[in-house]
């Protein structure tokens, strides 16, 4: 790859040369131009000039957009309405193709730890599992260059280590790797070179150690701006606030078909019980949240109470969601309707995907304040689906927060966000917890997101059906849980 004097409204590159025997990582925050660089590598960027441009031909690409397109294709082919059961769709094995049975591919399946997923429909895989599956397909197809956008997002610690081992295996076998990340902590140790994007240009590029030293010496998180709802609007003194029951689950279980994900889970969440859920990819974290939000049919099979009322007692799903603010990969995937960024934020007031209700000037003004807070107000009238993934995710976070719900349900909410935006959100959640504005239910793999305001921490692995150790008590103290966590942020 060789680029010289590239000029585009969203990206400037003076000179960049990447040789086939080098492994490159590129870092940049969400407004640095790194997303435009990805479009360039994919051959999808238009309206630029360059005195020299030599790009990799037909690279394999793992991106958030590619994951979204795969999900939408599965939805278009869903035949559940014509079957007497849910259509599992394309299985992971079918997605990989007939070569899945060859010895070389079997070794890769083991390296990527997705052997057990081959018969599972790809719609039912976790976010992390589906990302590994797409990457593996590109390798099987024979791509000699693999481009990865934030490959560690959505992966647990063990899966990150597995992925690094798999990528080093690919590197040793002559496959060129180009990785794009938004977090300094995600820059892998195995890459040989590092490029740095800032203010829509490639500012530095060279040997990893030298560039990383420079980056670490200049990086600093921005101060958190006040959120659009002021802390003075807290509902009551946390010490005196009522302990309303929000969630009560007895002997909870979930699975697909005859396969169970977890069982025997007892959980109580009262007002102020900010709860963190973590565990290995595929253990059922997202499924558990879908049960709470009513997006999984097991919400009726379980002994579940929401907001003090037994689930299935005549309440509608909309009555439940009125009291929740939700951000999740599935909600993000479901936002396929034509809608502006401003309208997506406003839709949070009505719990709809798309805006179908009239709004008043006060509501519009509040939505604009949230766009200001996430620093996207210039994009208010831009089509949501045409924005980069990270900007879409920030808009969905504003959508969840605008109505100040009783319960915030965040499933990998910071996926695709840079360090500044991640810390900005977590600082806000800390203020929300401190001032009793809402109760937080948060799923994450990143240990740098395990803040002390979480009063309950649940390792869902302890309730998976294939565990070999006695089931542990779900709710632990912050001090005890921190002792169990591996070092580092991932």
How would you portray this structure in words?
- It is a single chain.
- By secondary structure, the chain is of the alpha/beta class.
- It has 2 domains: 2-218, P-loop containing nucleotide triphosphate hydrolases (Rossmann fold, 3-Layer(aba) Sandwich), CATH 3.40.50; 240-484, Rossmann fold (3-Layer(aba) Sandwich).
- Helices cover 32% and strands 20% of the residues.
- It is built from 16 helices and 18 strands.
- The protein has helices at residues 34-42, 64-76, 92-96, 103-112, 127-140, 157-172, 208-218, 285-293, 298-301, 317-321, 329-334, 341-347, 361-373, 389-401, 419-434, 478-484, and strands at residues 2-8, 11-17, 24-27, 52-54, 60-62, 145-149, 176-181, 193-198, 201-207, 245-256, 259-270, 275-278, 303-306, 309-310, 324-327, 407-411, 439-443, 456-459.
- It has a 6-stranded mixed β-sheet with strand order 5-6-7-3-8-9, with helices on both faces. It has a 5-stranded parallel β-sheet with strand order 15-16-17-12-18, with helices on both faces.
- Strand 13 (303-306) and strand 14 form a beta hairpin.
- Helix 12 packs across helix 13 (361-373) and helix 12 (341-347) runs parallel beside helix 14.
- It is globular.
- The model is unreliable at 231-236 and 467-489 (pLDDT under 50).
């Amino acid at each position: 790859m060789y680029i010289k004097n590239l000029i585009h409204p969203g990206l400037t590159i003076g000179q960049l040369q990447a040789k086939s025997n080098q492994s490159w990582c590129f870092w940049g925050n969400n407004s640095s131009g790194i997303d435009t660089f990805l479009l360039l590598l994919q051959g999808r960027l238009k309206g630029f000039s360059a005195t020299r441009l030599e790009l990799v031909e037909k690279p394999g690409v793992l991106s958030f957009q590619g994951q979204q397109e795969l999900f939408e294709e599965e939805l278009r082919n869903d035949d559940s309405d014509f079957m007497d059961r849910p259509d599992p769709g394309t299985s992971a094995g079918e997605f990989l193709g007939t070569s899945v049975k060859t010895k070389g591919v079997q070794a890769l399946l083991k390296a990527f730890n997705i052997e057990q997923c081959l018969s599972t429909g790809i719609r039912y895989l976790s976010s992390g599992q589906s990302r590994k599956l797409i990457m593996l397909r590109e390798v099987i197809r024979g791509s000699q260059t693999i481009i990865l956008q934030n490959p560690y997002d959505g992966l647990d610690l063990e899966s990150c280590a597995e992925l690094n081992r798999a990528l080093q295996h690919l590197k040793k076998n002559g496959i060129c790797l180009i990785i794009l990340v938004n977090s300094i902590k995600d820059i892998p140790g195995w890459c040989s070179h590092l490029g740095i994007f800032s203010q829509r240009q490639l500012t530095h590029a060279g040997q990893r150690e030298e560039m990383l030293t420079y980056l670490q010496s200049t990086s600093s998180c921005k101060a958190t701006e006040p959120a659009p709802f002021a802390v003075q609007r807290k509902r009551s003194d946390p010490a005196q606030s009522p302990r309303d029951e929000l969630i009560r689950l007895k002997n909870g279980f979930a699975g697909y078909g005859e396969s169970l994900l977890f069982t025997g889970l007892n959980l109580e969440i009262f007002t102020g019980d900010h709860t963190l859920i973590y565990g290995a990819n595929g253990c059922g974290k997202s499924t558990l949240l879908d049960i709470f939000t009513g997006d999984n049919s097991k919400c009726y099979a379980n002994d579940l109470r929401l907001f003090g009322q037994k689930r299935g007692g005549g309440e509608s799903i909309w009555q439940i969601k009125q009291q929740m603010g939700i951000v999740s990969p599935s909600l993000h995937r479901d936002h396929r309707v034509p809608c502006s960024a401003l309208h997506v934020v406003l839709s949070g007031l009505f719990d709809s995907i798309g805006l179908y209700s009239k709004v008043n000037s006060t509501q519009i003004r509040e939505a604009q304040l949230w766009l200001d807070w996430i620093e996207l107000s210039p994009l208010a009238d831009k089509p949501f689906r045409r924005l980069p993934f990270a900007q879409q995710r920030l808009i969905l976070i504003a959508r969840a927060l605008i109505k100040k719900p009783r319960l915030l349900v965040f499933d990998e909410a910071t996926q695709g966000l840079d360090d500044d935006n991640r810390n900005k959100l977590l600082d806000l959640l800390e203020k929300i917890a401190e001032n009793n504005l809402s109760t937080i239910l948060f799923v994450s793999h990143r240990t740098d997101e395990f803040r002390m305001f979480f009063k309950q921490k649940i390792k869902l692995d302890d309730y998976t059906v294939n565990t070999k150790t006695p089931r542990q008590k779900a709710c632990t103290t912050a001090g005890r849980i921190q002792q169990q966590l591996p070092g580092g942020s991932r």
